TrEMBL record, chain B:
This is Fumarate reductase iron-sulfur subunit. Coiled coil: none annotated. Keywords: 2Fe-2S, 3Fe-4S, 4Fe-4S, Iron, Iron-sulfur, Metal-binding, Oxidoreductase, Tricarboxylic acid cycle. It catalyses: a menaquinone + succinate = a menaquinol + fumarate. Its EC number is 1.3.5.1. Belongs to the succinate dehydrogenase/fumarate reductase iron-sulfur protein family. It comes from the Bacteria. Pfam families: Fer2_3, Fer4_8. Part of an enzyme complex containing three subunits: a flavoprotein (frdA), an iron-sulfur protein (frdB), and diheme cytochrome b (frdC). It comes from Seongchinamella unica. InterPro entries: 2Fe-2S_ferredoxin-like_sf, 2Fe-2S_ferredoxin-type, 2Fe2S_fd_BS, 4Fe4S_Fe-S-bd, 4Fe4S_Fe_S_CS, Beta-grasp_dom_sf, Helical_ferredxn, SDH/FRD_Iron-Sulfur. PROSITE patterns: 2FE2S_FER_1, 2FE2S_FER_2, 4FE4S_FER_1, 4FE4S_FER_2.
Amino acid sequence: MGAAALEPKPMRQKINRWPARLDVAQSLSGLLLVLFIWGHMFFESSILLGKDAMLWVTRMFEGAHLLGRPYPVLVSVAAALVLALVALHALLALRKFPANYRQYHRLNRHVSAMRHLDTTAWYIQVITGFALFFLASAHLLVVLLQPENIGPYASSDRVWSGRFWLLYGPLLLIVHLHAGIGIYRLCLKWGPFPAQRLGLWRGRIKLAAYCIVAFYLCLGTASLVTYMRIGAQHAPYAGERYAPEAVE
Amino acid sequence: MDNIPVRQHRTLTINILRHNPADGDSQPRLQAFEVDETDAMTLFIALNVIREEQDPTLTFDFVCRAGICGSCGMIINGRPGLACRTLTRDLPDEFTLLPLPGFELIADLSVNTGKWMRGMAERLETWVHASDLAGVDLDQMEQPMDPHLAEQIYELERCIECGCCIAACGTAQMRDDFVGAVGLNQVTRFRLDPRDQRDDSDFYQLVGDDSGVFGCMTLLGCEDMCPKDLPLATQIAFLRRRMVAV
């Protein structure tokens, strides 16, 4: 029956490596974005250590410690790179989104019938990923276009007087759900776990993902509340910049 | 010790999807059946009780009643499983049985998994490919195989093609052309086989796209619902790494 397939092929078909490259690129861009957001949270929450600590981190990213004076354009460059990475990841991840009503209908039915955590978690990633197209882009655009408006008072004023907490609150929850689930899936997608130990490793990674997401949600909430508190106190002087020596 | 404890048997209410696509007048509907539960009752037994005592037209598949033939896969309260390996005591008083989605419906709980599996097998060419097969002397002893390798192949060969992994896979449910865990598992099985002369670039031609290994989104429904506990997640991750390295 399989005789036809056994005859020598006249010419070997050229392999199209693009599906493999796209899959790797999607995973890799996701990994980079997760590492970025996890690092970002530590810098952003420097406000918990005080206004001076936050100002020091701000100046560091503006190159002040290396170049002698701050260059906010460096922050714009970084934001542009991250935005490009987000766009690439979104483009690649779109391939996996349900594409029409029929697929959404089937997926909905499947997710609700199965009551299977990993399947539901993927659906959450689709929804959070879609939300991030807008929320992450909005945040990145502000950083890209107004890099000089970052600092203990400038950021707090934006959060409170500029009402950006309405963006940052949902963004915090959504980005960490997406990142936590993403990193868990990434480990299982590529990880060379032996079959006998897969369940064990899967449990460990899941636990680690829960802990990491919980930690960053606490850290992010604490720093957002701090920015809101400072912003509310500073509201009458909104627009004024923080000057370390003025505090002395 | 006057009273000997007697186990209370439940009366199960089983809602079963009834539909016969061959009958133009048939409308899909859920029909409720009541069955007295017995000790160690499997769904396979419960379905036979219904067919013998209540409705001889109820259609469902079974052959081996021992989890070997893979005929009795169905959706049991939302999740795929084998009727013969599902004990009613693990289910609530009322539950629902549906045919496996993604396969051609024959009638009621009976689906044509064979047609799907044959299509998949032909597409992925899941047979030994060797240039000298026609010249093989069948009277001669086969080449001995390393026992460890033989065990590895056997482990993957345990797949009974019941279709549960397809019904459990979000990707397969959304995209009809996805070969699913059953297909990817068979590719890893023939990749291991020393009699198969294909190399990784040959296998890439078969599964190196979004209907193959790169379509898998690691939702792990297959891994969690496989009635034979096949190492599907490990095999798919392995195949993905190999195909990327081609």
